[in-house]
Amino acid sequence: MSDRKEFRDLTSPAKAHEAIASLDLEPEPETVAIADARGRILAERVDADLDVPGFDRASMDGYAVRARGTFGADEADPAVLDLVGEVHAGSEPDVFVDEGECAEISTGAVMPDGADAVVMVEKTDELGTEAVEIRTSVAPGDHVMPAGADIAAGQRALGPGTELTPREIGLLSALGKGEIEVRGKPTIGIVSTGDELVRPGEDLNSDAGQIYDVNSYTIAAGVEEAGGEAKLYPHAGDDMDVMEEALTTAAEECDLVLSSGSTSASAVDVVYQVIEERGELLLHGVSVKPGKPMLVGRLADSAYVGLPGYPVSALTIFRTFVAPAIRRAAGVPEPRTATVEGKLATEERYSEGRTRMMPVGLVENEAGETLVYPVDKGSGATTSLVEADGVVEVDADTEYLAEGEQVRVTLFSPSVRTPAVLAFGEDDPAFSRLLDRLKSSRFLSVGSREGLRRLRDGLPDAAVVAGPVRREVESVGLGSWKREWGLIVPEGNPAGIEGFGDLIDGDLRFVNLDTATGLRASADAELERLAAARDTDAAALQNAIDGYGFTLKAHESPARRVLAGEFDAGLGLRATAEKLGLGFVPVDSQTVRVRANPERVEKQGMKDLKAVLSGMEEVLADLPGFEPVDE
Amino acid sequence: MSDRKEFRDLTSPAKAHEAIASLDLEPEPETVAIADARGRILAERVDADLDVPGFDRASMDGYAVRARGTFGADEADPAVLDLVGEVHAGSEPDVFVDEGECAEISTGAVMPDGADAVVMVEKTDELGTEAVEIRTSVAPGDHVMPAGADIAAGQRALGPGTELTPREIGLLSALGKGEIEVRGKPTIGIVSTGDELVRPGEDLNSDAGQIYDVNSYTIAAGVEEAGGEAKLYPHAGDDMDVMEEALTTAAEECDLVLSSGSTSASAVDVVYQVIEERGELLLHGVSVKPGKPMLVGRLADSAYVGLPGYPVSALTIFRTFVAPAIRRAAGVPEPRTATVEGKLATEERYSEGRTRMMPVGLVENEAGETLVYPVDKGSGATTSLVEADGVVEVDADTEYLAEGEQVRVTLFSPSVRTPAVLAFGEDDPAFSRLLDRLKSSRFLSVGSREGLRRLRDGLPDAAVVAGPVRREVESVGLGSWKREWGLIVPEGNPAGIEGFGDLIDGDLRFVNLDTATGLRASADAELERLAAARDTDAAALQNAIDGYGFTLKAHESPARRVLAGEFDAGLGLRATAEKLGLGFVPVDSQTVRVRANPERVEKQGMKDLKAVLSGMEEVLADLPGFEPVDE
């Protein structure tokens, strides 16, 4: 590798912000129809260019008069005026009110010429059809809403930079604005690179190492959230000419070009070459984790930012450095509730000397305090996108954060809510169905053993624990059920397997589950039992099974490997075998328990979980091998 | 009027919520492309139906081996394996690794068949091109990220009801979902009624009492904000057949029909008749202010709600009763920051025995506390749409709210922000320009006198005061300028007017400004001066001017009436005369002062205002008759 690709001269985050702020992303204003204006930002001040209302409007039912003609009139000495016509709302007056005259008028109607006030009907009496007795005197303007009283022509109605919500749209409608000039949305071109990337919805050839393109759609959604317009460019691959073509086309058509995807050396080389030939590189490499390999520069007349390839890194860099610049260019204000304060639930050490954007999850305790825990599944994991709620920025000099330390979390979006229930533990189809019935929950499939460990440390609201348990953890039982487990084999059980004995004695390939899972704990216990019967030790039996040490983490995974013909048998549930149309050799049943953190049982989310658990019979009804347990 | 139209049997707000909740607005789920999925709500749980990664992936550069072949190997006693090929990221392995063999492999590449572990390159040495020395032993699975380690086929990925933000779109992309089933958006038909309504953008005939249709676009924007799809039906007028046709078409095509607009008796009659013939009326009239005349019912297979005609009433009723039902039908969660607590800045009395939805504005004091003040310009005013920030719900039994009382404000939308500066006072073109340079401000054009009164009561951050001032109010001067005022006359001054004297002595029609304005105060002072010179009193001179008592509120309004040929002269500014191409007879100059609330000068918004005021010379440069003043 060349020096360049190692990003030896890392730029500070502050300098990276400066570099991006120096780029010009701001598009021209545009004109939109009022029906499409919601959420847009006014480009310029809007003054009223007409009066609202547009005419002197009667604000009472009564008679339109010349005020002077009523002067001195009262109950004792009424004035008598000739009735010369009538005016209704929504029609043009066809009458002129002269001295000594009046016209009948209804609320909302246009004042007839000549008249300058309205006498309310309660203070009048008609004398036949041609005259009216007026029992009060009025001043000019009485009971008349003059044209422009709501807003008058020439008045400032809305300022530049105003976000158009239904209210502003109401005022613009009243002003008769059929269309309106708004801030343009910066156009952001997204060029994904990498031979191995396939667009979602297309067929994937995993055997050739293909993976779905995560960054294009994730970043496009982020661009739209920030007030930009995303434009996806055809997948560029690693072919130098194709990629150069995509980058330069995007630069011509967009205010900002983002590339992301492959981190392969050849792709990086092409980007460097294109930027250096046709633009300017302002910085390469920022001292943050994740996201070190970030490029900022200009490409033709466009701005350019190169994002890292791993999705979590790409989205973190995008949110931290690029989204604020898009918002500024679009005139969109920073979101209001984008941060939350909380206490760190576990200590955290780090010492790479880079600013760290630490992805974290949130959980609330009974007192409503927010606890914050790091989510670190490695940059390559896409699930951490949804298992984290935001990011804590940790200074490059901070090597240690203590448990209980107050931290500020920048939420991934203003709509992020702390999950009502946070559970860790065994992946189980029945529990998945329970979660579907809860409004907002998060479950981390870490296996029974790890779930219990985290419950002991006080982090989750609940743990899902299956099978035998080695150590006790203080908890409150919320509910339990049984599930049948055994060996999953090809349809029709062609090898005629009857149990673990056949795996030990025969020449069969087995696929196991991780030791953190409750299913594996039950399988280990079964081998202990067999070892005792055979007068040997369990380790010897494990060694005798080809593949006992080859473990997968998810409970359906062994079954799917059997389905793919890669193994003769795998550990799993009867429910999985039936779902996938495979054969099943029953071994035993194990109990799954939902165990609550004793300090969280009064949380609303936990009460909701308990309520949902009371409907367990219905949840289990069509799950083969599952049955309720009263404990 | 019939009994019915008086809404004698008013329903309680709680019962109105119940009636709307009993209607079914929920549409069928729909399928959208992943690129269009942002902001949508998942209709059903999404399970992974493939492993991510989709293949066993090398997580180090090195050699793919069978782990068994390395057992016992160490620095002292390395194993030697035959090198049989190489595998790169993004390509399909064309090699099988048998016992005693290995293959070169790069990070991210597919594990070749036969191999079950990777030895990192640092622990190896190539022996020529055909053999490799392995200086460590590895276990099966070492340095291999197994297929499904991120998320495995069969695992629950996202729950039903999840809002799709960029993060969820990232995970769905990783799972290869090109399209996704989401909750449908309820279709809301909006039928506006009323002969006098004209769509914004079309020509308005004010002489015939026409006004722009405010409700259709306002409510449509509110529908979209709540997660619905708005559909506008051609303007229905008051014609019975046309309106019946519009209502029944909307009912066939939509989940909910909203009608609003005319409150005329004939329109209400048609709605009643159509609902009763083709549907069911559940309630008419709710005990709330504003918004009493609200209808709830069914129309064919659709739900129906009739909104009041006045825009503020219509939007209040929509937000209070209809928007929550649309959100429920769309699966959209209630917005998080939709309320704010604050102290009432002024006492408030009310005793109509109805629940009151009191529109209020917000202002922050120096301590960051929120103060709340009622905004009541009457239901007919559209400007109160943008001058209020939210609504305080006041119980029907509460007749008095004390100053300082803590109230809860339901914001009009989660993006509502308390204005950085709240100013009251004289409408002035220079101050309007200053406001354009501030990020978020609110100015209420109430005239100099009323602005000073509110400043004395401690409500606004600042008051804009022009002309002579009768009483002193404790304040901090922020800046000032002069503006030239006089009589605005038709172009070329056809009547040869030279000053107020000509209005007093001649037969000319004059149009004045409201006594709350500083311009009027200066005009009154000028008449005092003339009266002294003529040895009479000012009242006599005022009476001698035809129209001195006919007043308008906005500073440009008299000029526009002169422009329309309705008057021979009007009170106004030189700047206005030049802007509108009118003649101008100068009388004098007056000083405009920006006076700060002494307890708010340290607010950030006020500091920003002060900074903007320092650039006054530039602001005034092209405003005729304006000049800076140092005081």
From TrEMBL, chains A, B:
InterPro entries linked: MoaB/Mog-like_dom_sf (IPR036425), MoaB/Mog_dom (IPR001453), MoCF_biosynth_CS (IPR008284), MoeA-like (IPR038987), MoeA_C_domain_IV (IPR005111), MoeA_C_domain_IV_sf (IPR036688), MoeA_linker/N (IPR005110), MoeA_linker/N_sf (IPR036135)
Gene Ontology molecular function terms on file: molybdopterin molybdotransferase activity
Domain of life: Archaea
GO biological process: Mo-molybdopterin cofactor biosynthetic process
Domain MoaB/Mog: 189-328
Pathway this chain belongs to: Cofactor biosynthesis; molybdopterin biosynthesis
Name of the protein: Putative molybdopterin biosynthesis protein
